[in-house]
Amino acid sequence: MANRYSPHVNVTRWSPHFSTRGGAHPTLIVIHVTAGHNRPGVADLTALGGWFANPTSQVSSHVATDADGLSARFVRDGDKAWHCMNYNRASLGIEQVAPGDGTEITRDMYRETGRWVARWSQMYGIPIRKAVVDGGIVRKAGVIRHSELGAMGGGHADPGTYDMDAMLALAQFYRTKI
Description:
This protein has 178 residues and is α/β, with parallel strands linked by helices.
């Protein structure tokens, strides 16, 4: 898997929780972490897809990666996933499935997340750098932690302990290869 430069989708389960971007192009990539069990294979990604398909959840993300470096697809890029409130229209979301507080994020997960960032950078011109937002407005396009969106992004604390610099370096590397 280490020689792949582009993400590979292992699970596809389209979520009903999406809406139109209204012609807007994404300028942010939002990094999330969600709790999982770290089961082998695609079990955690499949379970997350089940939650995103659940009528009561009212949430979704464009993709997810897991500790094994596997990926799942839930919402098409051209649509708005429901993952970060007031920034949904401007963003693409990556959920990373980790079994605890995020400190268990593996090198394989960083790699696969970096592949998605590189792909979206190439497709949509989103710079591979740390983004800046303020009051619901994207001040500097790029990649941002869900927690950095503040109350307007839902007031979440994820992804917790996370080496954004390492993931962005991987994304830069993959961007030169695809």
